[in-house]
């Protein structure tokens, strides 16, 4: 591979398709206004090269996990057999034969090449006062009228947006003031500088500070409740053609990344965010498929036929058409993701496994656990029509619901990558922008221009679009701390 890492990077270690990544740092770097064409680290690189680029802001986080979670696995043979009976044989084989050996070997590769005295994550900015782990601590001098995250629920719904909704263009020379989040629908920051949105600044009460959100350069977002979350009777008739309200048909993307609210009993009980019940899986699958069908770039479209002639600025230089869906370890979620990708014309080409570890490099739970697995999987498809090195063509494959199992699809995937990372706050995923760019959009060492969209996003990414009702969640200023500030935070390292 060759080369050294010259720019700041969140990748602490890389060996071919194996990565060790720091989650808060990955999100922080994704706020920068330039895409960082990171040179691949040398094979077995430990990331010991120091960057000369000083990071000035830290994303508030939680203390890194030091010990694996206590086991909740069934201990008695009868209980174990009962659990196994509920898991399809194809799903057992998928995890035991394809995923588990790869994860185990990848962790060993990191341990062999990464310095033994270094933690598997960077120091984290952690509030030094008791706080709810789902929300960063607020400044002690000012009392807020509820959390920003609660107010995000007032985002416009699908009925409030039309296909001709004009976007709000932000200024970068002064804060952009709004009375409430519901005033924001389609918002753009076309500048190469960050912008600030200030909500509630019209109030005169000095005990209540306005909420500020930092909008990365060249980022755009649609703040709304997606139609697939609405009851069938309330769902707009145009929802299939406009699965993201207000986003026009001609807005196409080379990369669409989705983190859907899959059914999850523990998450439903905690109330962290809304999830779908398994009985609504077909609705969720249909919604994912519609988004991909309408907004993914068609690699067979000629540049002369692109909508850039009638819509200047929308020319797509990259011919890639990539879609990625985070899934849980439930068989129904994997089937739904495969089906949504296939139905939208994508051939499933890669799977990326995020392995959750302690700061000492141990999986947070048993690799072969039944109740809880220490990893999540990102399923990646490439639009058919490209020369794709896969053994299955999305257009020729039989409909997945008619298959006895998913073995044929999963065994045809030619590339799997492992990304180890110490978990951050609940539901935060690692920002994989730099890895996506290096894998799919680099040509002869140069980053090609591409368009990206993250659906169900909980933070913005520079240069990308984002859609959902929580797109601003972790872009609130209170989620960040400047080095040297007086804010009550500590930089916590894993001892």
UniProtKB/TrEMBL annotation:
InterPro entries (UniProt xref): DNA_methylase_N6_adenine_CS, MT-A70-like, SAM-dependent_MTases_sf
Top-level division of the source organism's lineage: Eukaryota
GO annotation terms (biological process): methylation
Pfam families linked to this entry: MT-A70
Span list, region Disordered: 34-54, 120-171
Biased composition (Basic and acidic residues): 146-162
Polar residues compositional bias, start-end: 36-49
GO CC terms in record: nucleus
GO molecular function, one term: nucleic acid binding
Family listed: Belongs to the MT-A70-like family.
PANTHER family assigned to the protein according to its UniProt record, in alphabetical order: N(6)-ADENINE-SPECIFIC METHYLTRANSFERASE METTL4 (PTHR12829:SF4), N6-ADENOSINE-METHYLTRANSFERASE (PTHR12829)
Protein name, per record: MT-A70-domain-containing protein
């Amino acid at each position: 591979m060759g080369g050294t890492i010259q720019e700041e990077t969140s990748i602490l270690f890389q060996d071919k398709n194996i990565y060790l990544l720091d989650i808060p740092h990955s999100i922080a770097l994704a706020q920068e206004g330039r895409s960082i064409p990171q040179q691949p680290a040398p094979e077995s690189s430990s990331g010991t090269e120091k960057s000369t680029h000083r990071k000035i802001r830290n994303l508030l986080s939680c203390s890194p996990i030091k010990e694996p979670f206590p086991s909740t696995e069934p201990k008695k043979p009868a209980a174990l057999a009962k659990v196994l009976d509920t898991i399809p044989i194809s799903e057992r084989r998928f995890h035991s034969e394809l995923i588990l050996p790869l994860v185990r070997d990848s962790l060993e590769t990191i341990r062999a090449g990464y310095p033994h005295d270094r933690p598997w994550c960077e120091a984290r900015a952690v509030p030094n006062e008791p706080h709810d782990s789902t929300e960063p601590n607020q400044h002690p001098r000012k009392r807020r009228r509820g959390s920003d995250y609660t107010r995000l629920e007032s985002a416009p719904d699908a009925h409030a947006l039309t296909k001709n909704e004009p976007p709000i263009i932000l200024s970068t020379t002064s804060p952009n003031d709004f009375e409430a989040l519901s005033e924001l629908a389609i918002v753009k920051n076309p500048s190469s500088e960050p912008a600030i949105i200030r909500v509630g600044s019209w109030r005169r009460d000095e005990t209540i500070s306005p909420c500020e959100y930092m909008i990365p350069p060249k980022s755009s977002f649609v703040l709304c409740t997606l139609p697939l979350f609405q009851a069938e009777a309330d769902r707009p008739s145009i929802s299939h053609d406009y699965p993201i309200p207000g986003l026009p048909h001609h807005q196409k993307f080379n990369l669409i990344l989705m983190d859907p609210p899959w059914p999850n009993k523990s998450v439903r009980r905690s109330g962290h965010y809304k999830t779908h019940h398994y009985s609504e899986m077909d609705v969720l699958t249909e919604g994912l498929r519609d988004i991909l069908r309408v907004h993914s770039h068609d690699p067979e479209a000629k540049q002369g036929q692109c909508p850039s002639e009638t819509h200047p600025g929308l020319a797509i230089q990259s011919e890639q058409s990539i879609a990625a869906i985070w899934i849980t370890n439930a068989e129904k979620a994997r089937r739904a993701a495969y089906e949504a990708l296939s139905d939208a014309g994508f051939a499933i080409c890669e799977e990326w496994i995020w392995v959750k570890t302690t700061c000492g490099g141990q999986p947070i739970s048993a690799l072969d656990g039944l109740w809880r697995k220490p990893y999540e999987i990102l399923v990646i498809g490439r639009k058919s029509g490209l020369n794709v090195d896969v053994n299955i063509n999305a257009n020729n494959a039989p409909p997945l619901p008619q298959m006895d199992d998913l073995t044929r699809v999963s065994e045809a995937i030619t590339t799997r990558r492992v990304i180890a990372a110490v978990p951050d706050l609940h539901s935060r995923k690692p920002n994989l922008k730099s890895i996506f760019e290096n894998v799919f959009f680099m040509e002869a060492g140069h980053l090609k221009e591409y368009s990206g969209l993250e659906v169900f996003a909980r933070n913005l990414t520079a240069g990308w679009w984002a859609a959902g009702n929580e797109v601003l969640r972790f872009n609130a200023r209170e989620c960040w701390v400047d080095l040297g500030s007086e804010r009550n935070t500590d930089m916590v390292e894993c001892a």
